[in-house]
Amino acid sequence: MEMIVIRGLPGSGKSTRAVSEFPDHLHYEPDHLFCDTQGRYRFDAQLWNRACQWVEILTDFALARQESVVVSDVFATLAEIEPYRRLAEIHGAEFRIITCEERFGSVHRVPVTIINEMREKFEGE
Description:
The protein is α/β, with parallel strands linked by helices and 125 residues long. The chain has one domain (2-121): 3-Layer(aba) Sandwich (Rossmann fold), CATH 3.40.50. Helices cover 36% and strands 16% of the residues. The chain is built from four helices and four strands; from the N terminus they run E-H-E-H-E-H-E-H. It has helices at 14-21, 48-64, 82-91, 112-121, and strands spanning 2-7, 26-28, 69-73, 94-99. Strands 2-3-1-4 form a four-stranded parallel beta sheet, sandwiched between helices. Helix 2 packs parallel to helix 3 (82-91). The mean pLDDT is 92.
């Protein structure tokens, strides 16, 4: 069982990598919670923190069932990754961090100014 965190700026290939390289893992990311029944992305900044909490809860449940999980998100600071490192430790899962650095363009149309702000605070491992 393993817990993988895939981090990177919007449009860096996180979701694609999670799906293609880890098909046998449960894949969670906060952005999944902003898709409606038609598959349209409907972001609401006021719900972002709650979406992140849900992903952490889902991850905890999956690891408790001994299932491997991959979580993809920006994770600009290393502190944002720590809850997942702790969950892996609690459940005895191997833990890995993968950083994506490609620039494919954001499928969620994140403004370039926001991406640049994220880039400035992005911490290396």
